[in-house]
Amino acid sequence: MLELDVLLMPFAKDVFPSLDPVNQQRYLKLLDCEDQDMFQWFMRKTEPQDQEIKAIVDYILERVQPA
């Protein structure tokens, strides 16, 4: 899904290398999720049930859309 690529590719390139190992694992776990689920999470229509995935989704959203 192009929208996810636009969000996740720069994050992977610019931020992933500096993440601590826990968040790197969370990010890799996120990549195993269904595109439609991820799209819903990043559009803030739903939240992941898995707290590990929720943590990395929230982190990515904070980086992309600072409060």
TrEMBL record:
UniProt KW keywords: Chaperone, Cytoplasm
Subcellular location: Cytoplasm
InterPro entries: SDH, SDH_sf, SdhE_FAD_assembly_factor
Domain of life the protein comes from: Bacteria
Main location group: cytoplasm
Protein family (similarity comment): Belongs to the SdhE FAD assembly factor family.
Protein name stated in the entry: FAD assembly factor SdhE
